């Protein structure tokens, strides 16, 4: 790679998390020399970094490059996103940069081609609150998101139940229809209008998107109002605001527009092609049809796997020529054109050893090259950086922290750490002696400082407790903006949701990270004695270990992990039969973090009676030895299921957690040897009744030729057995007992003070004077107590 490319990619880091760039083409590509080897010899293309506040916003006239690194030695994913209005120059530049970036990162990342409106589930999973499509592009003057600017006026049409997209449309009643949800964003206020035919799930997703805009783009300083389209008279003042902005509505609204969100249709027709050049001509030769076996793939060649146009995957052998590997993406696009497949067809390019779970699932059997039997797993380093393949055990990783840096960590976690807790909506410094202890009732900001090329670099983690209040979460976002400004916008901001801590976050606390389910770490606050407390410890060294509090019941245990049971007088160290020696060492160290009480080791199957008494008695728990394998032949996959259209459809949920189990859904969990159908309490009755047939259909149409007699297990919400919950980390049995349903979120947004402020800011002058009996300018000159009194009398407060 030449020096220009090295300079271009100098800001590409390998830490876990998300990085996004937009492509800025300063002049046409006609004068560039681009050979078959994708050499770049001109300087008219730029990768412009997108700040964290702008993540999820995509301009239709641009192309973007998105990198997501998971950590833990797994390969990264590189996506290039094509806006519907982007130019051929930008699309070509993006494809070139992806190829060069893949080379820069050692050739191991999986490459994905994404087209606006047809993004893959993996891409959408990075933006849990949805994607926002914005009109224009770089030429429109967009460079960054300023969280302190409120001169915004836009209308967003929100669609989707599982994967939400919001598209900028004309700010007019003509854009509305009865089926969708619309966000009227006016800068200081966002009014959500719910179409009469929209459902609860869509409404909830739209609220979360509105809150995300408020917190991320406005620093938490914007009001949100809610209007039900089938009961507009219940929100007269908000309707007056909408009329003031949109004008008077005339005529009937348009009928609902059917969702065109592309579900994944499982296709049993899978073909494998060998792709090569012969005398300058591209040759595509069929090798086999399903079911496929791994021995069909040879390291010296490249292949295309075609799911009859629903997905095209390219596999690059490690010993294939450099030209073949560099041309893989272009050949896939050329193959799509030759087959007359839609332009939006998903394309994935992966290197031998870095195959995606979806790719492996298309083969009858699969064994990773480095995988060995039993506990002696051989790890392969350098999946991102150009690092020699090395074999090591977990003790060597513990002794050589530099290996962690090679696993997409910015450093060896030896930098400086400073932690604040949100108290009374302000920052309060945390005692360094308690660093690593995070309570579910709090929000924290963690500033990590390290050196790179003798320059200080910063990462700002925003950790949000599951039980923190809305005000605390908003204050956390606001204070993060203040810290970011203090360091002139240089910190990399990482929003961390409780239970989803990235690897580097774990590493900086050196094996002392403890996640308490509830409560607060505020000094002087006494936590009521709730009896015994149980902590699940996962990790094999100081860089990847954390303890998560779970329900102190026997059903929370898992045969493959270490658990710490803290009672009034002793801490039990419970060692499951499937845990390793390194895991036991970290469990012992973590027990010292929790308490200086006496310790007693308890081996699974040899528990004293006092142990069972402390956890409420014996009960079944996750004891499946298959959960013990560190890298099973087929990773578990979770899907949202639907056959409402008469054809079985599924949408995959990447990087799944318990929070992805929606009460209105039927979900399919495929662990390869078993199929679980999870039925939510509010799931469609027809889908619930058809759950068994859905599982059978899934197996019948699976490209790998699955055994139709694979055990199928239907699980009802609230009655999950340990064989199901064992596949989810830190399962919370009380998750659905109360929380963030649409009705509860709506109630929170119906704050009279918030609605009052929206009315004051956005009512027309005439409506304002009719309502309050004085002009807006005279009102604003009154003292605050007098303003409040007039609002109360008007019925606004």
From TrEMBL:
CDD domains the UniProt entry points to: gelsolin_S1_like (cd11290), gelsolin_S2_like (cd11289), gelsolin_S3_like (cd11292), gelsolin_S4_like (cd11293), gelsolin_S5_like (cd11288), gelsolin_S6_like (cd11291)
GO molecular function: actin filament binding; phosphatidylinositol-4,5-bisphosphate binding
Highest taxon listed in the record's lineage: Eukaryota
Any single Gene Ontology cellular-component annotation: cytoplasm
Pfam family, one: VHP
Primary location group: cytoplasm
Keywords: Actin capping, Actin-binding, Calcium, Cytoplasm, Cytoskeleton, Repeat
Family the entry assigns: Belongs to the villin/gelsolin family.
Name of this protein: Villin like
Species name: Sander lucioperca
């Amino acid at each position: 790679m030449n020096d220009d490319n090295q300079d271009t990619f100098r800001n590409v880091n390998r830490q876990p998390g998300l990085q996004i760039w937009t492509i800025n083409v300063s002049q046409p590509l006609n004068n560039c020399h681009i050979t078959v080897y994708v050499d770049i010899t001109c300087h008219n293309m730029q990768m412009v970094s997108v700040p964290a506040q702008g993540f999820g916003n995509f301009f239709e006239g641009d192309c973007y490059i998105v990198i997501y690194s998971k950590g833990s030695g797994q390969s990264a994913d590189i996506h290039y996103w094509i806006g519907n209005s982007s130019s051929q120059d930008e699309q070509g530049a993006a494809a070139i940069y992806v190829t060069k970036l893949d080379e820069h990162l050692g050739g191991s990342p999986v490459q994905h081609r994404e087209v606006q409106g047809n993004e893959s589930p993996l891409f959408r999973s990075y933006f849990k609150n949805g994607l926002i499509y914005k009109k224009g592009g770089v030429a429109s003057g967009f460079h960054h998101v300023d969280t302190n600017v409120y001169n915004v006026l836009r209308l967003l049409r929100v669609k989707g139940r599982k994967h939400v997209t919001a598209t900028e449309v004309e700010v007019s009643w003509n854009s509305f229809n009865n089926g969708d949800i619309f966000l009227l964003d006016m800068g200081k206020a966002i009014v959500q209008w719910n179409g009469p035919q929209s459902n609860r799930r869509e409404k909830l997703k739209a609220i979360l998107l509105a809150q995300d805009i408020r917190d991320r783009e406005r620093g938490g300083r914007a009001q949100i109002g809610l209007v039900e389209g089938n009961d507009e008279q219940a929100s007269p003042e908000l309707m007056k605001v909408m009329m003031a902005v949109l004008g008077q509505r005339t005529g009937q609204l348009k009928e609902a527009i059917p969702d065109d969100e592309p579900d994944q249709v499982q296709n049993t027709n899978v073909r494998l092609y060998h792709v090569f050049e012969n005398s300058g001509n591209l040759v595509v030769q069929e090798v086999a049809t399903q079911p496929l076996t791994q021995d069909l793939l040879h390291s010296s060649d490249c292949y295309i796997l075609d799911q009859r146009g629903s997905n095209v995957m390219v596999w690059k052998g490690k010993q294939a020529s450099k030209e073949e590997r560099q041309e893989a993406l272009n050949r896939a696009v050329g193959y799509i054109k030759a087959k007359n497949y839609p332009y939006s067809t998903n394309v994935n390019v992966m290197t031998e050893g870095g195959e995606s779970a979806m790719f492996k699932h298309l083969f009858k059997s699969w064994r990773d090259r480095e995988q060995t039997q039993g506990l002696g797993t051989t790890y392969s380093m350098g999946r991102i950086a150009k690092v020699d393949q090395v074999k090591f055990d977990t003790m060597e990783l513990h002794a050589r922290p530099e290996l962690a840096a090679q696993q997409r960590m910015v450093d060896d976690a030896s930098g400086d750490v400073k932690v604040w807790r949100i108290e009374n909506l302000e920052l309060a410094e945390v005692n360094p002696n308690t660093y690593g202890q995070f309570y579910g009732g709090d929000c924290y900001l963690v500033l990590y400082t390290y050196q790179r090329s003798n320059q200080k670099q910063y990462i700002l983690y925003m950790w949000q407790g599951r039980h923190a209040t809305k005000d605390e979460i908003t204050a956390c976002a606001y204070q993060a903006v203040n810290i970011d400004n203090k360091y002139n916008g240089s910190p990399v901001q990482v929003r961390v949701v409780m239970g989803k801590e990235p690897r580097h976050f774990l590493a900086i606390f050196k094996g002392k990270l403890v996640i308490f389910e509830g409560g607060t770490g505020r000094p002087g606050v006494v936590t009521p004695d709730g009896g015994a407390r149980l902590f699940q410890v996962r990790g094999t060294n100081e860089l990847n270990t954390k303890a998560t509090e779970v329900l102190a019941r026997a059903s929370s245990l898992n045969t493959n992990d270490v658990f710490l049971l803290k009672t009034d007088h002793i801490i039990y160290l419970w060692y499951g039969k499937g845990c390793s020696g390194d895991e036991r060492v970290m469990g012992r160290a973590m027990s010292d973090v929790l308490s200086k009480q006496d310790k007693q080791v308890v081996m699974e199957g040899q528990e004293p009676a006092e142990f069972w008494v402390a956890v409420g008695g014996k009960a079944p728990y996750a004891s499946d030895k298959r959960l013990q394998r560190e890298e099973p032949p087929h990773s578990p996959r979770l899907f949202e299921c639907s056959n409402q259209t008469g054809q079985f459809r599924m949408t995959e949920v990447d990087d799944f957690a318990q929070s992805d189990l929606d009460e209105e859904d039927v979900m399919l969990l495929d662990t390869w040897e078993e199929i679980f159908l999870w039925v939510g309490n509010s799931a469609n009755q027809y889908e619930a009744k058809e759950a068994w047939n859905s599982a059978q259909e899934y197996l019948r149409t699976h490209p790998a030729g699955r055994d139709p007699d694979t055990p199928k297990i239907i699980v009802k919400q609230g009655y999950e057995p340990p064989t199901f919950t064992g596949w989810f980390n830190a399962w919370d049995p009380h998750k659905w007992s109360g929380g963030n349903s649409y009705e509860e979120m709506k109630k929170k947004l119906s704050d009279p003070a918030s609605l009052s402020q929206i009315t004051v800011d956005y009512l027309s002058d005439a409506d304002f004077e009719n309502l309050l009996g004085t002009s807006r300018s005279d009102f604003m000159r009154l003292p605050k107590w007098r303003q409040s009194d007039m609002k109360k009398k008007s019925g606004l407060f």
